[in-house]
User: What shape does this take?
Amino acid sequence: MESCVFCRIIRGEEPAVWVEREEHAVAFAPLPDSSLAPGHTLVVPVHHSKDLVSADPVALAATTALAQRVARAMVGGIGATGVVLLQASGADAGQSVPHLHLHVVPCWPDDGTTHWPDPPSAHRHDGDPHAALAEMFE
Assistant: This one.
């Protein structure tokens, strides 16, 4: 995708602070003003995928596997005692760049933050939402 900022970064047309580059996924630092913690890293599939819903299974598997290795590096390399994995698909979920990406955010006991949604969604669904989900697999 010509206009996708993550595709431009992957092609070397935009600067990046690289953590790792692999055949199907890459990891790099977010812009400094959007970093949530020291070491916060974005993990992105090389092949453009708009979001989790439309991602190619190979690209998704590679991206998730690289996110796990980045999390392990955070624990071993910068002493993180926990890691949060954030991903938003779609504008209503807060996705700001329309290219699948995972935020791997290291955490420590003294960082004073949590990354869990609060308050929970106010949306109400008629009926049992988990039953409706299960029906999609039948």
Remarks:
- Helices lie at 5-10, 57-78, 129-135.
- Strands lie at 18-21, 25-28, 41-45, 82-86, 102-107.
